[in-house]
User: What shape does this take?
Amino acid sequence: MAKLDYLAKLVEDLKKDGVYRELPINYGPCTNVIELNHKLVVNLSSNNYLGLANNDRVKNASIEAIKKYGVGAGSVRTIVGNQDLLIELENLLAKFKKEEAVTCFQSGLNCNIGVIQAITQKGDLIVSDSLNHASIIDGTKLSKADKAVFAHSNMEDLEKVLKEKRSLYVNVLIITDGVFSMDGDLANLPGIVKLAKQFDCLTYVDDAHGSGVLGESGRGTVDHFGLHGEIDFIVGTLSKAIGVIGGYVASKKIVKEWLLHRARPLLFSTALPPSAIGATIESVKMLMESDEYTLRLWKNAKHFKKGLKDLGFDIGHSETPITPVMIGDEAKTMLFSKELLKNGVFVSGIVFPTVPKGTGRLRAMISAAHTIEDLDFAINVFKKVGKELGIIK
Ligand SMILES: *Cc1c(COP(=O)(O)O)cnc(C)c1O
Assistant: This one.
């Protein structure tokens, strides 16, 4: 037996279960049409909501930042990686989010992993929505606090948990995604804020899919619900609608002071590179100057959703440009995705264990980068393949 045979066996099991996959290769930028495995396809599977990942203004800002600051921060934030460009970005984001302070991390995942651990201690309780993102789950695992889960977006269940447990803990932190990425539904933030007040809890929203999408010029779900000042920790990502890479938490100043001393990704991992910071500053400025991008995103999303709905597809109950196309059966879901790709449209199939068994779906992500022609082409391919597979009449 070779030492790594145990991994070979695990990979073999993946193949037996039919869930082993080869990753497709994208031979160019992430935009409306991509060259995937050397075939041009309409891309309905990226989080590049506003098309900024390949925007000329953003790319030029990135190049200028490299010319002035080089390609790497050269150090963790807490030694000499604290470049003035990063402070400029944090101040700009704080203004954009209408919060006192912003602390940037190397990614959204890093941010959750660093922040949740730093702001909770032994004797505290974290109460988490059952459908929260993997990075919240990982961040929670690293915390010394106790953990509880409430049924997805179910305020009665959250209240039950708080009634039972609040008095047993020092601090209680309620954590939720702002937008749930598998169904595109929004958290019940007004309900959560109300319960948090009633039971004296802290609140934490991970708005990765809401930033750049919801609220005025993409200020996020907190802005969408008019809840500025009511959420203690607002996490966003710079990797999705903003088009670059990085994560951040918007909060009171005191939170930032603490994080700069205790959030482990800031202490033990090199700071964001200047290319990413320069690009992000430009993206955020573009959002603050005009709502052109968010308006185009929503116009495209409405057009696409109407097209599929009119054809008779079940597109779930999404409240965002995330468009699930419910299929049910796992094998049929994967077959649908494969046939769409053959016909020039890439939409990823999502099946168990990412979503519950029997709720397989395709997940189409609409972007401001799409033209109406791209979307109409995709709708027609959905129609053709949907009929062939008997999903629509
Ligand atoms: C995508 C996502 C993240 C991770 O963000 P990255 O910047 O890609 O690391 C975190 N939380 C949620 C809810 C997400 O959807």
The chain has a mean pLDDT of 96. The longest helix spans residues 292-311. The pocket of pyridoxal-5'-phosphate is lined by residues 107-109, 112, 133, 135, 177, 181, 206, 208-209, 237, 239, 247 (CB under 6 Å). The longest strand covers residues 322-328.
